[in-house]
Structures are given as C-alpha cells and as structure tokens.
Amino acid sequence: METLLWLCNWSTLLVCAALKLPQISAVLGARSSRGISLPSLLLELAGFLVFLRYQCYYEYPLLTYLEYPIIIAQDLILLLCVFHFNGDVRRAAPYIITCVSAWFILTLQQWILDLAMQE
C-alpha cells in the first residue's frame, strides 16, 4: 500500500511538472500571448499562492503540497511570456511585487490567512 501511495505522489508531481508546458511552448512557438487571459492567470496564481502559504504556515508535510511551487513557477513563466509578447516585460513587476508582498502579508496574523482560505 505504501508503494502505491509513493507512486501516486510522484506521478502527481510529474504531471504537475508538465501541466503548463504545452501552453508555454504554444505561446513561445506562436510568439504571441493571444488567447491567454491575464486576469484568469493572475487569479489562478493568487489561489495557488494562498493555498501554498496556508500549507506552509500550518506545517503540513511537504509531499502534500509540493506540486504547488512547481505550478506557481510555471505560472510565473507564463506571466512573463504574456508581458514579453505584449511588448513590455516591466509591466509584470507590479504583479510580481504584489505576489511577493501577499506571501508575507498573509501570515502577519493568523486570521488573515484563514480569511483568505474561506470558501
């Protein structure tokens, strides 16, 4: 049974490692971010960041959320591609600063993080 759990954990990580790669390669191949919704990408990124911070804050085992840093890294690459092909990578800076700031603000008080995780 333990082998099955190990296999499931690592297969999930492998799938997550390749989750956004087709989208990133399509954007790079087309040299255009047409069809990528910036608001939906930012919403997805925010959700992943909040969940990852929640898991870290409450010290859950690493293997229960290891796929989220992988997905977040791919989302950040996709975000930079969107701004690059829209002509101004510097416009990504406020979004990245907001994400980094939110990472720290979420844990200033426990209630902030709990509120962010409400349904």
TrEMBL record:
Instruction: Give a yes or no for keyword Transmembrane helix in this entry.
Output: yes
Q: Which InterPro entries does its entry note?
A: MannP-dilichol_defect-1, PQ-loop_rpt
Q: Name one Pfam family in it.
A: PQ-loop
State the membrane topology.
Answer: Multi-pass membrane protein
Q: Where is the signal peptide?
A: 1-18
Q: Which Gene3D superfamilies match?
A: 1.20.1280.290
CC per GO annotation: membrane
Q: Where in the cell is it found?
A: Membrane
Give TM regions: 36-54, 66-86, 92-113
Instruction: Look up the domain of life of the source.
Output: Eukaryota
User: Which keywords annotate this record?
Assistant: Membrane, Signal, Transmembrane, Transmembrane helix
Which PANTHER family does its entry note? MANNOSE-P-DOLICHOL UTILIZATION DEFECT 1 LEC35 -RELATED, SOLUTE CARRIER FAMILY 66 MEMBER 3
What is the protein's given name? Solute carrier family 66 member 3
Gene responsible for this protein: SLC66A3
